[in-house]
Amino acid sequence: MARNVDRRDFLRASAAFAAGAAAGFSCIEIASAAPIEVPTVDRLSLRVLIDSAHDQFLKPSTVQGVLHQPPGSGRGSDYRKVLHNQWGLSLFLESQRAEEARTILLDFGYSPEALLNNIEILKVDPSKVDALIVSHGHHDHYGGLTGFLNRYRSTLAPDLTLYAGGEDNFCHRLSPAGVPGQFTDFGQLDRRELAAQKIRTVLCETPTVVAGHAFTTGQIRRTSIERILPNTFVERGIKEGLGCDATHYSPAELQGKVIPDEHVHEHATCFHVKGKGLVVISSCGHVGIVNSVRQAQEVSGVEKVHAIVGGFHLGPAPKDYLTQVVAEIRRLEPDVVVPMHCSGLNFALEAQAQMPEHVIVPTTGSRLTFGA
């Protein structure tokens, strides 16, 4: 069942919308808080447009019914070109239900140069994109968005929608500079650029159906043993139209302090594949991959987990904590676990130790197929 929004949450969301409208962001909307009807698809194909590594020698395989295909040489037809890897993630999702096809672009990598290069080499068709999703407000997930729109906006649907987890996506992020109390800029998603490109943006603090085939978890409840591992810091407020709504201020922020990033509105993207179960895609999973899967189960009413995919932000995890989290993942009984991006080599090794028949390690350009 979808999470209902209480009056305080609703007023905050309304204030965020009003602030955006006042600044000229008429393309910002708040997703409905009504319960959703979770769609079912027959098949899902996931192409990794950007991840941190490319394996030239990757062999095709089938693991627990999931087909994993390599990208080939990574050069396309021109030997002078090669797939670009970088710290970030971008996934091209194609789903099928009977004769109905949908395409979603989830996250956009760190830079437009890498995203545009890989789109060309992998010969994916941006004109097919029915919807865009940004998982959370980190530059390595939205950095290629503006460049993608600059290149392809004229071939995309005129009413194209970007689904973001919530107002928190637009906050200013900072990285620790290695000296206590000092930070370096880590950017912020600029909704003015989205408005200029005539992109409708929907803030999905509650579960939302996307393109009739996928659904988002909405804000993820934190019920597991998981904790947010150190990452960025955040400050809230709108300055000259850039930033996020100030009604979410904490006492520390009201004193002018930046605070550790809690990723209030990070959400996961999910599919229910007929006869298989849930495919839960967590682009970074700062709020916990187990929490994300549990939220998907609650939202959909589907207990069976077919695949847990994406970034799990366990690269910096201490050994004992990592062992605990992988054990919790194993208890969810997924058919496959597919670590990418910030999951970490340590996670892949621990998952292979605890779940040796259930792990797929993809690469930039590879394709995963779920369902018939």
Structural commentary:
There is one protein chain. It is built from nine helices and 22 strands. Helices cover 23% and strands 26% of the residues. The protein is globular and about 55 Å long. It has helices spanning 7-22, 112-122, 139-142, 145-152, 191-196, 251-254, 289-300, 319-331, 345-354; strands at residues 28-30, 43-50, 61-63, 66-69, 90-97, 100-106, 131-134, 161-164, 172-176, 183-185, 200-203, 208-210, 214-216, 233-235, 237-239, 242-244, 259-260, 269-273, 277-282, 305-311, 336-340, 367-371. The two termini are 28 Å apart. The strands form four sheets. The chain has a ten-stranded mixed sheet. A six-stranded mixed sheet has the order 12-13-18-19-20-21, covered by helices on one side. It has a single domain, classed as Metallo-beta-lactamase, Chain A (4-Layer Sandwich).
Helix/strand layout:
Layout: H1 7-22, E1 28-30, E2 43-50, E3 61-63, E4 66-69, E5 90-97, E6 100-106, H2 112-122, E7 131-134, H3 139-142, H4 145-152, E8 161-164, E9 172-176, E10 183-185, H5 191-196, E11 200-203, E12 208-210, E13 214-216, E14 233-235, E15 237-239, E16 242-244, H6 251-254, E17 259-260, E18 269-273, E19 277-282, H7 289-300, E20 305-311, H8 319-331, E21 336-340, H9 345-354, E22 367-371
Parallel strand pairs: 1-11, 6-7, 7-8, 8-11, 19-20, 20-21
Antiparallel strand pairs: 2-5, 2-22, 3-4, 4-22, 5-6, 9-10, 9-14, 12-13, 13-18, 14-17, 15-16, 18-19
